[in-house]
Design brief:
By secondary structure, the chain is mainly α. It has helices spanning about 5-15, 25-40, 45-65, 65-75, 80-105, 115-135, 140-145.
Length: about 150
C-alpha cells in the first residue's frame, strides 16, 4: 500500500465536497467515486482496499463536516480543542464505513474473466501432472477374456 494511493484517495474524497451545495458541481462526485472504485479494484488486498476507503472518507468528511466544528464551538460553546477533537472523531467514525466497504469489496471481488498469465502456467502444470497420473482403463477385449 503506497502513500501515493492514499493521497490520491484522500484528494478524491476532498473533491467530493464541491459536488454538494452551495457549489453543486455534481460531475466531481461521479469522477471521485469512479476513482475510488478504480483504486478499490486495483488494491492488492482487502487491507489496502480498506485503507484506501478510509483515506477517501477522511478527505470527504474532514473537508465536508466543518459545520460540525462551527456548531459545537460557536453555537454550542464547546472549547475549540474539544470541538476539533469531536469533529475529527466524527470524521473517523464516518470514514470507517468506507473502509469497511472497501474491505468487503476486495474480499468478495470476482476475478476478471479470462485466464491470466500466471493461471495459464499453473493450469499447464496441472494438466501435465494430471496426464502423468492418468490411469488408462483396460480395453473391452481384455475384460471379456477374463
Amino acid at each position: 500500500m503506497s502513500r501515493r494511493r492514499l493521497l490520491v484517495a484522500f484528494l478524491a474524497g476532498a473533491a467530493m465536497v464541491p459536488a454538494y451545495a452551495p457549489l453543486e458541481w455534481f460531475p466531481l462526485a461521479l469522477a471521485a467515486l469512479a476513482l475510488l472504485i478504480h483504486l478499490w479494484l486495483t488494491a492488492p488486498g482487502p487491507r489496502a482496499a480498506a485503507w484506501t476507503g478510509f483515506a477517501f472518507g477522511m478527505g470527504m468528511f474532514l473537508v465536508g463536516v466543518s459545520w460540525v466544528y462551527i456548531s459545537l464551538h460557536r453555537f454550542g460553546a464547546m472549547p475549540a480543542p474539544l470541538a476539533a477533537f469531536a469533529t475529527f472523531a466524527f470524521s473517523v467514525i464516518l470514514a470507517s464505513y468506507l473502509a469497511l466497504a472497501g474491505a468487503v469489496q476486495a474480499t468478495l471481488r470476482v476475478p476478471p474473466a479470462g485466464p491470466s498469465a500466471s493461471s495459464r502456467s499453473r493450469s499447464g502444470r496441472r494438466q501435465a501432472t494430471a496426464s502423468r497420473k492418468r490411469v488408462v482403463p483396460p480395453s473391452p477385449a481384455v475384460t471379456r477374456a477374463s
